[in-house]
Design goal:
The chain is of the alpha/beta class. It has a single domain, classed as Rossmann fold (3-Layer(aba) Sandwich), CATH 3.40.50.2020. It is built from 3 helices and 9 strands. A 6-stranded mixed sheet has the order 4-3-2-5-6-7, with helices on both faces. Strand 5, helix 3 and strand 6 form a beta-alpha-beta unit. Helix 1 packs across helix 2. The chain is globular, with a radius of gyration of 16 Å. The structure holds guanosine-5'-monophosphate (5GP). Guanosine-5'-monophosphate binds next to strand 3, strand 5, helix 3 and strand 8. The site of guanosine-5'-monophosphate has 19 residues, from strand 3, strand 5, helix 3 and strand 8.
Length: 178
């Protein structure tokens, strides 16, 4: 079956499951940053835009939101391995408590690149919050401080994640078989 706009991805994580997990992550993060605030939430575009919006609204500590854009894939679902910085943050990170908010860790190359690049800018602290991880695919060990779900090795879409720019607005996370 072709993967077009009419394709219905199979549900892997329902809207309710995601909501409950985001609330729990926000509680953990709020506890951890209580007194250390403010948190500089750094979303990795474009896949994390819905996750960071939900997370930012559930935190109970002061936070600011910024974005960075990287590219690690050409098209579809094939990894190129190479990571490029496409859009940088607006303000220097020196002295800030940075929390990277990423949609998914697959091979780990993107998060590894990001941590190395941003650590060099001397933030006061740097941690990672990742919604999904595919442990079977990991190539580079990375530190995920706050993890939503581990998932099987399948291409997932919805809740910000795409397949060739489709399905980002789905309220649930589902699988497509390319
Ligand atoms: P990594 O560098 O860890 O291999 O890949 C991280 C990036 O690959 C993610 O930020 C995301 O853009 C993309 N990616 C990896 N797996 C998936 C997936 O199953 N679905 C979608 N939509 N993107 C993915």
């Amino acid at each position: 079956m072709p993967i077009n706009d009419f394709h219905q991805p199979e549900v892997l994580l329902s809207k309710e499951m995601i909501h409950d997990r985001v609330l729990e992550l926000a509680r953990q993060i709020s506890r951890a940053y209580d007194g250390v605030e403010p948190v500089y939430l750094l979303g990795v575009l474009r896949g994390s835009f819905i996750f960071i919006a939900d997370l930012a609204r559930e935190l109970t500590v002061p936070r600011s939101v910024d974005f960075i854009a990287l590219s690690s894939y050409e098209t579809g679902t094939t990894s190129s391995g190479a990571v490029r910085l496409m859009l940088d943050v607006r303000t220097p990170l020196r002295g800030k408590h940075v929390l990277i908010v990423e949609d998914i860790v697959d091979t780990g190359y993107t998060l590894d690149y990001l941590l190395k690049t941003l650590r060099a800018r001397e933030p006061a602290s740097i941690k990672t919050c990742v919604l999904l991880q595919k442990p079977d695919r990991l190539q580079v060990p990375t530190t995920i401080d706050y993890l939503g779900f581990t998932i099987p090795d399948k291409w997932v879409v919805g809740y910000g994640l795409d397949y060739e720019d489709k399905f980002r607005a789905l309220p649930y996370i589902g699988t497509v078989e390319p």
